[in-house]
Structures are given as structure tokens and as C-alpha cells.
């Protein structure tokens, strides 16, 4: 039995689809709203309704489970990222231990040895430290910059020819596609011969923002220029939209760490053999651009 958290999210939905295709063992999902699961999925998994922040729900879900896919859902309401991550994880550690779950795969961030505060990324590393105490064999999958982050500014890229991100134009940035995160997690969940704890960076390409904009321009057939967004302005903008100040500062801390090269050490000894950025653009981004064009008439 494998238990999947966040089964309707970007990573969780792809992971669940791959596990169902494998037809290897029973699956159980924790979901707040079962209606968000496709009928073809809902009929093939055991559904536990609720949130994995609730120890009682998690206790029910992990009864008899051998594997657990663990991902903390994003929030824009918490006072701090670390508070959010640990509010899920600390109770979960007790349940994992009590239910004697053998293997846990968690979605985290690369840059584990980074010596400075890194906002959201530090919160993910705090999650890892807790899960490593659970007694389960644990694999932390360390992400770089999600390629899917570019879907949100896509309308601006198409209409204004601008890609605005709080990154340094000439600082190479390790990137990853969500499909590769899901595939890596599936491989670990299905072959649970591994033991102990380990941290695995999951990367695709490493490009500067200028290089990212150049590939996007080439694939979409329209000129896109990178513009460096101001970090402090990012915080002010988020706070103005109602994000608690502490969480807004945690986002800025993440951007600052990315500017300073938090992923570089892990990149130096990783083997990036997954989806290239160009391939992702030719498939995912180009498809999304066609949808935007149809909807907005860009």
C-alpha cells in the first residue's frame, strides 16, 4: 500500500497517474475535495477525505501503508513558511513512527548545505530534518527552479515580450520539470529496496535567466526579454495583496538564495539527465501559449 498526499497538485497528480499505470499495488490518497479527482482515478484508489495536517486523518491513511509520498501544499496565508511546513511535519513524524511506515519520499529543495537563511527553502530543509527522525527510510528529493513557474508570467511574455523574475540575469539557475519530480518519486516508491536516509537533487537544465528568455523566444516565435525584478518590491507587492509579511519575506529569502547560488553545490555532483528546458518549452509551454492565445486573443 502506497499513500499519496496532494494527489490533485501538479506533482501529485502526475505521480498518481504513473502509479496507477504501473498497477503494482493498492493506492490510498488523502484529499480535501474528492470531486477534484478524475472519475477514472477516484474509482481506482482508496480515498481518505481530509488534510494530512490532521494527525487523525494521517493515522487513518497510514494504517497498513508501506510507502508514503509526502508534499507540503503551498500557502499564502501562513505567518511563516517554516511554521507552515512544521505544522504538517512534526505530527506526521509521530504517526509514521507509530504506524511503522517503511519508506517515505519527500519533496524538498536542493541546497541542503547552504549556510544562510533561505526562506521557503530553509523551511523545506527543516521538514527534511524532522522526517529523518521518523524511523522510516527517507529520501528527500531536492528541487531547483520549477520550469512550471514560467506558466504564470506567460500572458505577460506573450503580450509585452517581458519575463520579469527576481533573479540575476547572468547567474545560472538549476531547473526541473514537475514530470521528472513525479517520475523520480514513483521509481523510489515502487522499488523500496533502499534503506536509511539520503538527499537526492533532481535537476534538468542549468541556464541563466537571459538564456531562459532566449529559449522561450525561439520556441514561442516571439521576442521575450528578461527583466530583473527588485526583491524589496516583490515583498511590498505580496504584502499589498494580503500575504502575511513574514511569509512574503520568506519568498524574498528564497529569491535571494537563488540569486546567490544555493543550488550550485548540488549541481556540481548531480547527474542532470532529465527533461531539458527546451523540450519542456516545446511541449508544456508551447501548449499553454496556444491556450492563452485562444482565450485572450493575444
CATH topology of the largest domain, by name, is Rossmann fold
The biggest beta sheet reads: 7 strands, parallel
Read across the widest sheet, the strand sequence of neighbours is 3-2-1-4-5-6-10
CATH architecture level-2 label of the largest domain: 3-Layer(aba) Sandwich
Order of helices and strands: EHEHEHEHEHEEHEEHEEHEHHHH
User: Please, what is the CATH homologous superfamily of the largest domain?
Assistant: NAD(P)-binding Rossmann-like Domain
Q: What is the CA-CA span between the terminal residues?
A: 47 Å
What is the 3D shape? globular
How many helix segments? 12
Radius of gyration: 19 Å
The chain-level mean pLDDT equals 96
Integer count of domains: 2
Overview of this structure, please?
Helix 5 (120-131) links the parallel strand 5 (103-109) and strand 6. The longest helix is centred in the C-terminal third of the chain and has 20 residues, at 277-296. The strands form three sheets. Strands 3-2-1-4-5-6-10 form a seven-stranded parallel beta sheet, with helices on both faces. Helices cover 47% and strands 17% of the residues. The chain has 298 residues and is of the alpha/beta class. It has twelve helices and twelve strands. It folds into two domains: 2-145 and 176-202, 3-Layer(aba) Sandwich (Rossmann fold); 206-296, UDP-galactose 4-epimerase, domain 1 (Alpha-Beta Complex), CATH 3.90.25.
Amino acid at each position: 500500500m502506497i499513500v499519496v498526499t496532494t494527489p490533485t497538485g501538479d506533482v501529485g497528480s502526475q505521480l498518481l497517474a504513473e502509479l496507477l499505470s504501473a498497477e503494482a499495488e493498492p493506492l490510498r490518497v488523502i484529499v480535501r475535495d474528492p470531486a477534484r479527482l478524475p472519475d477514472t482515478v477516484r474509482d481506482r484508489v482508496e480515498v481518505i477525505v481530509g488534510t494530512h495536517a490532521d494527525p487523525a486523518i494521517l493515522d487513518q491513511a497510514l494504517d497498513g501503508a508501506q510507502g508514503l509520498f509526502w508534499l507540503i501544499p503551498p500557502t499564502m496565508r501562513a505567518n511563516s513558511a517554516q511554521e507552515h511546513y512544521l505544522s504538517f511535519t512534526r505530527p506526521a513524524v509521530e504517526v509514521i513512527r507509530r504506524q511503522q511506515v517503511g519508506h517515505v519520499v519527500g519533496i524538498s529543495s536542493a541546497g541542503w548545505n547552504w549556510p544562510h537563511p533561505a526562506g521557503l527553502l530553509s523551511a523545506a530543509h527543516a521538514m527534511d530534518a524532522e522526517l529523518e527522525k521518523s524511523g522510516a527510510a527517507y529520501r528527500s528529493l531536492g528541487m531547483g527552479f520549477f520550469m512550471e513557474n514560467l506558466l504564470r508570467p506567460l500572458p505577460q511574455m506573450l503580450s509585452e515580450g517581458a519575463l520579469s523574475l527576481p533573479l540575476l540575469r547572468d547567474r545560472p539557475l538549476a531547473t526541473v520539470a514537475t514530470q521528472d519530480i513525479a517520475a523520480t518519486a514513483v521509481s523510489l516508491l515502487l522499488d523500496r529496496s533502499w534503506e536509511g536516509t539520503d538527499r537526492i537533487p533532481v535537476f534538468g537544465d542549468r541556464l541563466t535567466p537571459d538564456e531562459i528568455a532566449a529559449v522561450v523566444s525561439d520556441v514561442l516565435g516571439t521576442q521575450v526579454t528578461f527583466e530583473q525584478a527588485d526583491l524589496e518590491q516583490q515583498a511590498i507587492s505580496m504584502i499589498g495583496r494580503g500575504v502575511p509579511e513574514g511569509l512574503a519575506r520568506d519568498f524574498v529569502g528564497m529569491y535571494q538564495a537563488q540569486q546567490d547560488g544555493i543550488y550550485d553545490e548540488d549541481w556540481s555532483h548531480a547527474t542532470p539527465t532529465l527533461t531539458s528546458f527546451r523540450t519542456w518549452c516545446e511541449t508544456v509551454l508551447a501548449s499553454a501559449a496556444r491556450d492563452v492565445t485562444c482565450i485572450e486573443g493575444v
